[in-house]
Write a structure and sequence with these properties.
Oligomer: single chain
Number of helices: 4
Number of strands: 0
Shape: extended
Distance between the termini: 39 Å
Length: 94
Amino acid sequence: MKKLAVFGLAAGAVLAVILVVAKSQQSESSQDSEGRKAEKRREMFDKMKAGMDAMPDDFPPVVMFNNLAGIRENSERILELLEKERSGTEEPVV
């Protein structure tokens, strides 16, 4: 039961950070430079990384956080396949 509670808290914390990042990106004015936005994203990412480093390596949110690059590559590949399927240049993926 304690493991479930810890997992729930960690998942909630990750979700809260994602929501805060999304909200802050919406509230920033269009006058902010891209460099400043990128710096804020790097700072937030570094804060998340520090929090994840304090958790065990096999903890599910840590595993997900450490595999972000792979997840992004898979997502891009899936989107490319869907675009090809939509345009009719490739057989539908089953």
